[in-house]
Design a protein that fits this description.
The protein is 18% helix and 36% strand. The protein starts with a strand and ends with a strand. The protein has helices spanning 22-27, 68-73, 100-103, 112-120, 140-146, and strands at residues 2-11, 14-20, 33-37, 45-53, 58-63, 81-82, 84-89, 124-131, 147-153, 173-175. It is of the alpha+beta class and 176 residues long. The radius of gyration is 17 Å and the shape is globular. The strands form two sheets. It has a seven-stranded antiparallel sheet with strand order 6-1-2-5-4-3-7. A three-stranded mixed sheet has the order 9-8-10.
């Protein structure tokens, strides 16, 4: 069983869980995923690894309840456990195997796990995050800790109005 250490609602219908999974935490890289199964009746659900703490042996997942199994998952609390938690699966982000010096000169479109990995390797990324409204901005504190974060909302309800565009001159870029 894989014990849930933390469970919280990040935004309307978006949930975050920190799960004890030491083997997964030791071997995962940005871009990989896990497959979780809450109980005997539940289906197997693939979820991107949002964060990991190798020392604590934990994996963080973020999900939106849509199907029956994820709707049941949202009701799990700290102290509950997943029946199965398999991973890491899939290919890591391609930049994990690239030369750090060359990577620091490129533009990238990272999300939190990638921002964290870049930060751990001495690269500061400028991250532009767009959300429909202020209520849908998630992981702001975490991304601010590992990047220069710029937030826009479609409706202008938080920081600045606009949409994040990766093809613009101000798109996410890395600096060492």
């Amino acid at each position: 069983m894989y014990k849930i250490q933390e469970a919280e609602m990040l935004a309307n219908n978006i949930y975050r869980m920190v799960v004890e999974a030491p083997r997964v935490a030791q071997h995962c890289l940005p871009g990989q995923f896990v497959i979780v199964k809450a109980d005997e009746e539940g289906e197997r659900i693939p979820l991107t690894i949002c964060d990991y703490d190798r020392e604590a042996g934990t994996i963080t997942i973020v999900f939106m309840p849509i199907g029956e199994s994820t709707k049941k998952m949202k009701d799990l609390k700290a102290g509950d456990a997943f029946m199965d938690f398999v991973g890491p699966l899939g290919q890591p982000s391609e930049f994990c195997s690239e030369d750090i010096e060359e990577l620091s000169l490129r533009r990238n479109a990272p999300v939190y796990p990638q921002l964290k990995w870049l930060h751990e390797h001495g690269i500061t990324a400028d991250a532009i995050v767009g959300a429909k409204t202020k209520d849908l901005v998630i992981l702001e504190k975490e991304m601010s800790a590992v990047s220069n974060l710029y937030i826009t909302t479609d409706d202008g309800s938080y920081v600045r109005k606009g949409t994040a565009r990766l093809n613009s001159p101000s798109a996410t870029r890395c600096r060492s």
